[in-house]
Amino acid sequence: xxxxxxxxxxxxxxxxxxxxxxxxxxxxxxxxxxxxxxxxxxxxxxxxxxxxxxxxxxxxxxxxxxxxxxxxxxxxxxxxxxxxxxxxxxxxxxxxxxxxxxxxxxxxxxxxxxxxxxxxxxxxxxxxxxxxxxxxxxxxxxxxxxxxx
Length: 149
Prior knowledge:
The protein is mostly helical. 44% of the residues lie in helices and 7% in strands.
């Protein structure tokens, strides 16, 4: 499978639902990204690049871990993390638990709405003023001159 650049390969609401499922933290290093960051700084990592974009194959990852893993298989990545002193058994259990959880698409849509501007929404305090005419401009100018005099 070719390496995907950018975020266009998955809908924003599904991406946010995955971040929500994984508690907005990197599954590899447990770096936490507070929910008010709206997912900025997070990426999605494929556990197995041959399985595609299904939610059971995707986990939340920080950019550093995703870049460090590159094209390593999950087993190769586990071996590297074990060298760094990580508890691989607990990590595997956590990933298995997370990837079995159903996605909360309502949360994903709500979080996506916070991140995406809604151009169809009208401003609440929109006041429509009458178009100025030449006569009203002269009256306004006369008023300003009278107040300053």
